Input
Amino acid sequence: MIVEHPLSSRMPSRWLMPTALLGAVLLSACSPYEMRHDNQSDARTQIWLSEESQVKVRAAQTRVFDTTDKRKMLQAIVTTLQDLNCKIDVLDEELGIVSAKKYVDLERPSFLDPSYILYRPDTLLFLTRNYRAWGPFYHRSDLVRLTVTVRDRNESQLVVRASAQFYLRAVEDPVPYQQFFRTLEQAVFLEGHAVD
Amino acid sequence: MTTFTMHISLFGAGLLLAGILSLQGCAAPEVKPDLLAPTEAQMKIRSLQTRSFDLKDRNAAIRGVIASLQDLGFIIERANEGLGLVTAARFAEPNYYDVVTITVTVRQETIEKMSFRANAIYNNKPIDDPKVYQNFFAALQRALFLSQESTHSS
Amino acid sequence: MAILAPALLGGCVAHTEPAELFALTPDIPKNRAMQTRMFETPNDRELLSASAAVLQDLGFQVEESQREVGFLRATKERSAREYGQYVKQVLVLLLSLGKVMQPVDLHQKIAASLIAHPLNPEATRQEVRVMFYRVVWKGDGQVDNQYIPPGEQYMEMIRDPEIYQQFFAKLSKAVFLEAHRI
Output
């Protein structure tokens, strides 16, 4: 007991300095901007979305409509997106794909980064290799990417799925999707059901 | 006092000199008359960059270009049937330092013939190595021939 | 410091000859097999539509669709931060006595480039090839008194067979067809 006591009290003091140093360094090493993004053990895991999160968001993102008129549905989707002030990038009638972006005025950028304006998502390398900036992702707090797909479910039903991306994350909150489908239902004069 | 004025005049002279120097640096380079004219080297590689194949189907031709580029490990960036245009890029693995971008256009020469033009860029420099284009057209021929072969077999 | 600096700046990178990038290397057939599956269906439209749906299921946003040539490209933008890199950054900072702050990965664009094309003239068999890759954008850093500006980019092809297997398993389920290896 007498031997153990000094030992246990000496242990923390020995680790105090390194821990404090490490903590201080860790805090200073991370700028607040960086802190806003998810930290993870392996960035490659982002390629795949876990089955749980797939199931979780799928229900909120999907509605079934009792119609087979794909064209009318796509028109309603386009109208809805336009009502939401979206810029439509991709519209493939036959495949039933609509993809759009929308700018939201959440944070005013403090400076103008040309990489943001010149960003072309269709090239392998953004801009040039020698250009140095915070990059096209820096102001992602003002951009929403949205993809809506329409597919046949069976002979009498269509399934509509909307998925959004905001600030380097998939939108998993069901509320924005509920709002989107409410607007869509009004545009197409039909009621959507959740997938059972 | 005199040293002060001398300093001032020296400073002034220095400024003037700097001004002249910077002005000279500001003169824009003259536009050469051949700025937009093809160079001899370009004319030479153009023949290397172009190849015709006996093919009628334009869509099959574009799909062949895509297949051959994919076989070579390229990533398709853009593909447009209407324009007959395919662009693709690939990094030099495993260090990923160098990047090659290739643009291929497909043009119908005659009813029976399809002409392919490939332009490859290595980092920021056009590639004039004939071997690059020979390799590409070999891969293209293989991709087109494979689909032709299945045409004959049917 | 002298040992650290080249490691940080990437040192001298061996350049690849352009001709090498157009040659068929032994790993190309292997990659092709991993990235490609064949489906017994005349319906390329359904195959593409299902592919888009599967990519959407995985959180991708469709960026381009060129149905005439069976081309789809979808991307997602995500954080690329990793704990391990911060640990390394701190270790390097401590070892260099606070002089070297390595930039860490910040953002990434994960992309899928997909092509569906018929294998025979009757178009009763379709081939789907998908390639996943990611482009990473790094943050800023510091060496001595010199600031390393942010924006260093690097790219990585995804060569994990598991990812491709799972993708085709999902696609196969979506079109109610078997995905055959080629």
